[in-house]
Every structure is written in structure tokens, then in C-alpha cells.
User: Fold this.
Amino acid sequence: MNSLPFREHQRWKISDEEVIRKVLAGEKAFFELLMRRYNQKLFRVVAGYLSNKEDVADVMQETYLKAYQKLDQYKFKATFSTWLIRIAINEALGKNRKDSKYVKFNSDTDEFQSKIIELPTAVNQNPEHQLIHAETKIMLEKAILNLSAKYRIVYMLREVEGMSITEIGECLNLSSVNVKVRLFRSRKMIREELYRLSATSDPFEFGFKHCDALVNKVLKAI
Assistant:
């Protein structure tokens, strides 16, 4: 399959519907545009259910393959992203059932977790603000990842992806009322978890990592 010249600005202006119709007409290369357009969103959705990055990659691949195979079944009623997310969620849940184990995150997956949520960073932040930003991000990620899957996915879709209550309901097959209830509870649990995390750690603690770095610098200097 030939790769599309994605740096051409007009390629990104084409709507999902136009892309899908081109793919259905035999121009398979255009499916790459859909993947590149929704990779980040799909990653965050799947990572809301699975803790292993290899499993997430496998489920994303399977999702795209099924979406391609069933593209002629897409009726253009819901947005393509909603339709794609439904497939991804079914695949992720199927993976969990197959493995007979549900989501369990741990501190060994920091690199993986850091890709799940991005906090905006000011361009001209000074070192102090950069440190505060990094620490805030870590605490927020831990709080989100400690939520059970049904609350985490609602929070991610709403607060990180900015999807509407209606869209989230369509993706998860929930009423708008249920989505709002889960969103309210997830926010409450995150606030409580952030308080717990902040209460159990000293914000001015000179931890082992900082201590080692300072000691090494001084020893090199003398």
C-alpha cells in the first residue's frame, strides 16, 4: 500500500466521510489518513481498559483491521470516531475476558502512563514551574489510573478528549444521565485521590533521586 503524502495540507482538510467513500471505492491508501487522525484518541480509549502496552497495540491493530473490514457497514449516522471507539472498546473488553484479568496499573509502567494524558505546558515556563507541572501531571495520572475502568474511560473521553456527553453515551451505550453520574463520581474520586496523594507525600521532600544528583555533582566538582 502506497503511503499518502500527509504533509500536503489539503489531505488533512478532507472530511472523514470523503475519506471513507474513497476507501470504499478502492482507494485503500486513504485508510492511513483515518489511522493517523485517530491514533491518539484510540490509544487513550484502549489504555483506559488495558495496562500492558503490547496489549494496547494489539487491540488498536485489531480495531483498525475490523473497522476496515466492516467499513461498508458504517452508515454515517454517528461520527466515525464514535463508531471506531465502539469497536475498540469491544475489542479491549474481549481481550480482558480472554485473559481472565482486568485492569491493574502499577508503578512499573510510568513511561507507558505518561503517554495517556497530556497537560498543556506554557512555552516560557521557568524551571520551578516546569517541576511543578511535571509533579502535577504525575499525581493526576496516578489519580486517573486508580479509577475503576468504567469511571476512568468516561473521565478520559470527557476531560482529556473533550467529547460531548451524547457522544460518550453513544460510545459506551449509556444514557446521558448515566454518563453524567459517572463523570461526577470520577471527578469526586480524583479530587479525593489527589488529596490523599498530596497528604501522604511531602511537597518539599528532598528525595533520593534529587539527593543522588546533588551528591554526584558536588563530588565531580571537588
